[in-house]
Amino acid sequence: MKRLFLAALLTLLLAAGLAAAISSDSGYVLIAYGNYTVETTVWIGLMLLLTILALMYLTAVLLHISLRHGSRLSNWQRDRSTQRGRRQTTRGIQALHEGQFARARHLLDRAAEKSDLPYLNYLLCARASAALHDDEQTQLYLHRASRSTRSDNLAVALTQAELNLHQNNFAAATENLQRVRKSARRNPLLLSLLKKSYVGNGSWPELLQLIPDLRRYQILREDDIANLEARAAIGLLEPNENLSAETLRTRWNQLPKTAQRQPAAVAAYARALLHTGSTDTAENLLRVQLKRSWDETLVDLYGRLGGDNPERQLAAAESWLTEHPNDATLLRCLGRLALRNHLWGKARDYFEASLRSENHPETSAELGRLLAHMGQRERSAECFERGLRNSTGELPALPLPTLTSS
Asked: Are residues 240 and 312 in the same domain?
């Protein structure tokens, strides 16, 4: 209270002093500029000067406030635009997963310019366009995605490859994936897509080179890798007119050891050897493989060989009976080998023993053919009928006509 009283008293004293000074001598100020002059008292001039200074100070303060709040306003507007873009992107992704592809593309496209990562929006637009079977728009969005980021962007390359595979364009998929493979050798999606592109394109040597990475980085289970190796080997060894025995042998030797132990690959190699006339090599291959690992497909193929030494084939196959006495496939194989040795009775016994183990249509057909040539027409017809029933499944019970004597 005392301070307020003292401040008021001091103000009154200063005002009284100023009034006395003005009344005693008002002073004189002349301002001349060109042809213009301004005359006033010192005190009025001083008040004008103070007013001008106050206005300048106020202008500076207002300008500072405007700039500071204008920046905040700009940031607020930008943040609001970004948030709106994120909401649109979220709705677009949701629509994409709900199967609303046209709506998803519209939302994601509108949000792309406001997105921190616009190429992701364009990639999703490309996926939506692919789902709509709009190839032109798919390529357009992929092009936009490439332009909005680095040309070797992994996400862009993987998306391009996926869409190429969806269109069965295996060559383009392979090109896109190989372009970025050096920078992402361990990427599981890249390796998986590369595997699909090689299989689709029939690039069997490249697939075999890829398999070690598939195994090392555990992209596939071991049994799936084994099947893939066999498939690559079968494709590589597929017989054709231009495939010589020497080329075939070179390809087989270039296969990894794990592939050479696959029964399907061994069977493919044996068939290719037979195609080139290398029957003895095929017989030796199958015999060695069957000692190492028993496989019914190889046993059946062994029985179909027409080697130069059928006696040795029959003796080798009969030695397997010790460990596989009731194997229907082996017994059918022995029946065929017995036929090659002109042992008709033994062949019949083996076929009949095979049928007791498994009622297989091929065995019935073999026995029926043999019995027909042995003059046993009735039994032959029964075998053929039984084989036909086995191959077509159980026939329904239907009324049939009765035979009448003429």
From this structure: no
DSSP for 227-284, please give it: HHHHHHHHHHH---TT--HHHHHHHHHHS-HHHHT-HHHHHHHHHHHHHTT-HHHHHH
Nearest Cα to Cα of residue 317 among 295, 340, 290, 343:
290
Rounded to an integer, what distance in angstroms lies between the CA atom of residue 213 and that of residue 219?
A: 8
Rounded-to-integer distance, Cα 280 and Cα 161, Å: 46
Residue 79 maps to a domain: no
378 belongs to a structural domain: yes
- 298's CB contacts (< 8 A; 6+ apart) are 263, 266, 267, 270, 286, 289, 290
Question: How many folded domains does the chain comprise?
Answer: 2
CA distance 96 to 107: 10
| Nearest alpha carbon to residue 328 among 304, 361, 306, 305 | 361
**CATH number of the domain within which 283 lies:** 1.25.40.10
> For residue 312, is it within any domain?
yes
Give me the domain span that covers residue 263.
218-277
Report the predicted TM-score, pTM, of the whole model to 2 decimal places: 0.64
pLDDT for residue 406: 47
Do residues 270 and 296 both lie within one domain? no
pLDDT digits (tens, 9 = 90+) for 288-346: 999 989 999 999 999 998 878 899 999 999 999 999 999 999 999 999 999 999 999 99
